[in-house]
Each structure stands twice: as structure tokens, then as C-alpha cells.
Design goal:
Layout (H helix, E strand, L loop, with lengths): L2 H5 L17 E6 L14 H9 L5 E2 L4 E2 L5 E6 L6 H16 L4 E6 L4 H6 L7 E5 L19 H9 L4 E4 L6 H9 L3 E3 L1 H5 L3 H9 L4 E7 L21 H8 L6 E8 L9 H19 L2
Parallel strand pairs: 1-4, 1-5, 5-10, 6-7, 6-9, 7-8, 9-10
Antiparallel strand pairs: 2-3
Helix pairs in contact: 2-10
């Protein structure tokens, strides 16, 4: 039996106009926020992103790609659990099965702890770029080692730090900064982005990898642009700065993408719209290379 049959709810919400063709991308959601510590509600993020995607324009004239003409496969959401270890086991099995299909994969969160399960299911030589206001390198948080505040530390412990690039951090504790330096984790700082250096530094990193996984924690954005997140941090990246960075992926094979920490209870629609545009843009850039 497929793990998709075992764990997915089979309730896709993203519409596709050409379902008879081969999927150009596959999407699934993970409604998990059991370790969230500030504004819980990210479990409702996947469906909010889908609703926004169905209501934005997905024609990209600059790339000459119209996503209404292709098949975007939506598998629905994983079954709900509040146990971190069960979520990790379930998601690793699902993601491993989907990675083998070699279709660009999009995972909708949910809190950032899901990324420990998803990225760890990709080949070890896959580059990892994470956009996040926080480092998420605590050893544990609220007595949990499988926390949204410690997932990246678990990845480093399991896979090392060589492939990791962290983009946009501006809020962290001393413990995290020490771990970052001890493990020589590469970064593009919030300051470097403001100074306009981000795209050059990101392009330089991407040139070293055949395949890359991109993780978007929406709190990397300033709350003025993305109020609907679980842990908002002031003085962040603008939406234009983020999309200047996203365009750096245009020549890169991005095999996996996750978008996490959207909290629709605190959103006015703008955060979900940004998340939907990230999906649309990443798919369009991937198709434009073919």
C-alpha cells in the first residue's frame, strides 16, 4: 500500500485546468502546529494558501508561462496529529515516496518543524536555502527537541551544515548564534539584504548545487507585508526584496519547496497571497527552463 493512501485525506483544493496531462508540480499540506509557542493556528495555513492561489492571476508574461494550461497536482493534507514524532515519521514516508516521482514538490505548513521531516527525505547532496527571521537552532524549546524552534539544529546534527544557507535572520538567542558559528553555517543577513547584496550572494551559493530545496518561513517578511504568521518579527524583509531573491532560482533546479508559519487567524489576506505567489512563481520559473 502507498503511504499516500494511508496518510492523505485526498481532498485537493487547488484547481487545475488540464488534469489529463502529467503534473508539473505536486502539492500537499501538513496541518501541524502542536509545538507552536506564540500564536497557534498555522495548522490552518495549507487551505488558506490554496484559497489564495485559486484567486490570484497565475499567468507570468515575463516568463511566457500560463499555469492555467498545466496540471498542478494537489494531494490534499496529511491526517492531523499533535505528536511530533508521529508527524515526522508520517511525513518522511510520504515525502520519500513523492521525491521518487521526480516532480517538483511543494509542501504547505503548518509550523517550521515539518521541514525536518521533508528536507531530510531528499538526497543528501541537495542544497538547502531557508528564508526565516529566526535561526531555529535551539537544542530544545518548551521541553521538546522536535520543535519549530529547533528543527534546523536537528537537520545539522543529522546531515551536517555544509549544504545550508540561512537567509534573513534578525531574531535569535545566544545559544543559536554560538551553534551557528561552531558549525560554520552560511548566512545572508537581514542587513546584507537591505544593502542590496542578497541576490549576488544567493546566486553565488546556488551555483554550487545541481538540486536545491527552498524553505520559506513567512516571518522572514516584515509584518507590514506578512502579518499572518505565528511569530512576527519587526524590521524585516520587504516583499520586493524577497521576490528579488526568489528570481535568483530561475536557473536552478528547485526540486522541493516548503512554505510555513502562515496563520490565517492573524492575516488580512496579504500573507496568504504572498505564499500563493511564491508557489506560482517557483513553478513558472521551473517550467520556463524547459
Amino acid at each position: 500500500m502507498s503511504f499516500l493512501d494511508l496518510y492523505m485525506n485526498k481532498n485537493p483544493l487547488i484547481t487545475a485546468s488540464n488534469e489529463d496531462s502529467k503534473p508539473v508540480a505536486t502539492i500537499f499540506g501538513i496541518p501541524f502546529d502542536a509545538t507552536h509557542s506564540y500564536k497557534p493556528g498555522c495548522r490552518f495555513g495549507p487551505d488558506a494558501i490554496r484559497d489564495s492561489f485559486n484567486n490570484i492571476e497565475i499567468f507570468h508574461p515575463d516568463l511566457q508561462v500560463d499555469l492555467e494550461e498545466v496540471h498542478i497536482e494537489d494531494l490534499g493534507n496529511t491526517r492531523h496529529t499533535v505528536v511530533s514524532s508521529e508527524m515526522v515519521d508520517m511525513v518522511k514516508k510520504i515525502t520519500t515516496e513523492l521525491v521518487a516521482k521526480q516532480v517538483q514538490l511543494f509542501i504547505l505548513g503548518g509550523e517550521h518543524s515539518i521541514t525536518y521531516a521533508t528536507y531530510s527525505s531528499f538526497p543528501k547532496d541537495t542544497g538547502y536555502v531557508v528564508f526565516d527571521a529566526h535561526y531555529d537552532l535551539r537544542d530544545e524549546f518548551a521541553d521538546s527537541k522536535l520543535s519549530h524552534a529547533s528543527y534546523l539544529r536537528r537537520i545539522v546534527e543529522e546531515r551536517g551544515a555544509d549544504n545550508i544557507l540561512h537567509v534573513g535572520a534578525r531574531a535569535f538567542v545566544r545559544e543559536e548564534l554560538e551553534f551557528l558559528k561552531e558549525n560554520n553555517i552560511k548566512t545572508i543577513s537581514d542587513k546584507e539584504i537591505r544593502e542590496g547584496k542578497g541576490p549576488v550572494l544567493l546566486t553565488e551559493y546556488l551555483s554550487s548545487y545541481d538540486n536545491v530545496y527552498a524553505s520559506y518561513d513567512l516571518d522572514v517578511l516584515d509584518p507590514a507585508f506578512a502579518p499572518g504568521v505565528g511569530n512576527p518579527e519587526a524590521v524585516g524583509v520587504t516583499s520586493r526584496e524577497l521576490f528579488d531573491l526568489i528570481r535568483c532560482f530561475s536557473e536552478t533546479n528547485v526540486t522541493g519547496v516548503d512554505i510555513v508559519e502562515l496563520n490565517p487567524y492573524h492575516d488580512n489576506g496579504s500573507t496568504a497571497s504572498l505564499a500563493a505567489k511564491i508557489i506560482s512563481t517557483m513553478i513558472a520559473m521551473n517550467l520556463s527552463k524547459n
